[in-house]
Amino acid sequence: MSRIAYVDGRYLPHRHAGVSVEDRGYQFADGVYEVIAVACGRLVDEEPHLDRLDRSLAAVRIPWPMSRAALKLAMREVIRRNRIGGFGAIYLQITRGVAPRNHAFPAGAKPVVVMTARSLPSFDLAAARRGVAVISAPDERWHRPDIKSVSLLPNVLAKQRAVEAGAYEAWLVDDDGRITEGTASNAWIVTADGALVTRCADRSILAGITRGSLLRLATGHGTPLTERPFSLDEAKQAREAFLTSTTSWVKAVVRIDGQTIGDGCAGPLTRRLLDWYASYVDGGSAEEGL
Ligand SMILES: Cc1ncc(COP(=O)(O)O)c(C=O)c1O
Questions:
Q1: Which of 44, 91, 139, 185 maximizes ligand 1 atoms within 8 Å of its Cβ, making it the mutation to test the pocket?
Q2: Is the domain 125-283 a CATH 3.10.20.30 member?
Q3: Structural domain boundaries of the chain?
Q4: Does the beta carbon of 184 lie inside 6 Å of ligand 1?
Q5: What is the CATH number of domain 4-119?
Q6: Tens place of pLDDT for every residue, the chain, 290 residues?
Q7: How far apart are CA 172 and CA 199, in angstroms?
Q8: Ligand 1, closest atom to CA 206?
Q9: Fewer Cβ atoms within 10 A, N terminus or C terminus of the chain?
Q10: CA angle 6, 8, 12 (to 5 degrees)
């Protein structure tokens, strides 16, 4: 079955789907995006994702291309046309539009919406518990990584370093030696005294939607937690570490720069958080994960 993309109001097979060579997303990375998980054909955390899209659009001054309700309908149609009945993900991108190349905003350009969707295998809980390795890399991004911009070159380069080092992710380190986040995920540790720590969602990181849901689940279960920066050294000494994202859910981090974390597999709190998140995804509301 050919995959179907939504391009500027039309549903097209991928081989016929394309945008103009003068789309500003292509020429300037002048656009924003979201990735939303699909579970049992349902969009996970749809409203928080659309709220973040709203914040990204406002931050880069791209107007909403259509109403929120119309966008939701189009997303459902993309899911339906791609026959995603089980797990999957939808990618949604909005660029400033098509115009002759000139840095300043073009007068009268109409934002271009592109959506693609794909089925994914059921989440591999055992693999998430076995965990992954990460490397550290300097955070070379611009000063607004809180905006979910399609401008991802530093993330791409750091992720490639990770892949070439045999790791799953790169944890980015700021000028003060503190971890900001991963190239496509948020970073967490559990300290020696059992406290859950993740960096505060200020302008230095993307406020992950998975991060937000997990914070609510952890709070609801009475888990002590702190939102504060932590250093690479502290992470290497941590009792447990893990990362979160829409498609990775909660994945144990068992090695950082080759150094084993804890027992070299998911620690007890990471396991509990993963279980809570898995039932949350199944159930659909933060209350149901409690
Ligand atoms: C830089 C960065 N941080 C964090 C995340 C995790 O965000 P979410 O949980 O919304 O997928 C992502 C996801 O793509 C990301 O690109």
A1: 185
A2: no
A3: 4-119, 125-283
A4: yes
A5: 3.30.470.10
A6: 789 999 999 999 999 999 999 999 999 999 999 999 999 989 999 999 999 999 999 999 999 999 999 999 999 999 999 999 999 999 999 999 999 999 999 998 999 999 999 999 999 999 999 999 999 999 999 999 999 999 999 999 999 999 999 999 999 999 999 999 999 999 999 999 999 999 999 999 999 999 999 999 999 999 999 999 999 999 999 999 999 999 999 999 999 999 999 999 999 999 999 999 999 999 855 444 44
A7: 12
A8: 3
A9: N
A10: 35
| Tokens 């230095």 -> residue | 204
Rounded to 10 degrees, the C-alpha dihedral 149/153/155/161 comes to 170
Q: Whose CA is nearest to atom 5 of ligand 1?
A: 185
- Does residue 82 have its Cβ closer than 6 Å to ligand 1? no
Query: Burial level of 51, CB count in 10 A (0-12/13-18/19+)?
Result: middle
Count, residues in the chain? 290
